[in-house]
Amino acid sequence: MKKGIIILAAATLGLAACNKEKKGAGGLLYTIHHSAGNEKIKEGDIVKMNFIQKNDKDSVLSSTFDSETPAVFPAQKKMYAGDMNDVLTLFGEGDSATFKVNLDTMALHSKQPKPEQFKNDKYITFTVKIEKVFKKKTGEADSTFNKRATEFFQADYKAASEKRKAAEPAKLKSYLEDTKLETKTTASGLHYIIEKPGSAEKPALGDTVLIDYTGRVTKKGKDGKYKIFDTSDEKLAKAENEFKAGKPYGPQKMPVGGTIPGFTEALQLIGKGGKIKVIIPSNLGYGEQGAPQVGIMPFSPIAFDLEIKDIIKGKPAAAAPVQMPAPVVKK
């Protein structure tokens, strides 16, 4: 029994030591949460890394974990002790850590003021997971290394993309079950609920509509809610802390056919005064690229609430030319 207690105590002490914050050059602070014991990163290595970036208020500024798009970049030569490139040399493949880069030191060496978004902060904080460190072989030519790295990361991206694509149907199903929405589905795969049909006349390609809209991602945030990525409703934007100064709110004009395919299709299902709720799969939305800058992940469905306030008729869309068969010449 005593031996078991001693082993457990030793393991606990080891874990605590691994998670102890340490000081580095230039005011750097870092904590290694897990060390895989692999060779450390050095200049010239190609690094694949997931990270969460925060300010001193612990607000998340960006997260590749959420966007599902890890950063891939070459490790550069450090500009000064304690900079972003210097701290990477503390980690190897498989390691996870948190580090804080001192912004005053950065400003001193770059001779540039702190970025506006960090003007009241002392640190910029990163929590990272080093997914892959691609290293040059001894005596390998630069051209051979670059070719090998390009082929590896292209294959890696393709495999990750296929995995995300295969997971989309489950994402859509989970969203529908969680929100308890009983939708109809068009031939293209658009899910919809017409809440109010509106006028008999519906918008067509070439028309312009005046609409109110709210778009949400279909992956829950840490608060258990589906985040708005765009809305015309100023009151709602403020209520959900998504207000953007300078953005025009209120009903917006949009050309029918000038948006993503799922949005265009949804507009043509209702008339003036109509309301519709739609879930747009990625093949009718932002596809394999997504729009990570607003929180739309690759191969992810998105949800919209739409209301058509007015329809401004335009020129009918030109019909595609009919291809006539070549005439048969009698001999």
From TrEMBL:
Its EC number is 5.2.1.8. PROSITE patterns: FKBP_PPIASE, PROKAR_LIPOPROTEIN. Residues 206-312 form the PPIase FKBP-type domain. Keywords: Isomerase, Rotamase. Pfam families: FKBP_C. It catalyses: [protein]-peptidylproline (omega=180) = [protein]-peptidylproline (omega=0). Transmembrane segments: none annotated. The keyword Isomerase applies. GO terms for molecular function: peptidyl-prolyl cis-trans isomerase activity. SUPFAM superfamilies: FKBP-like. Signal peptide: none annotated. The keyword Plastid does not apply. Belongs to the FKBP-type PPIase family. This is peptidylprolyl isomerase. It comes from Pedobacter psychrodurus.
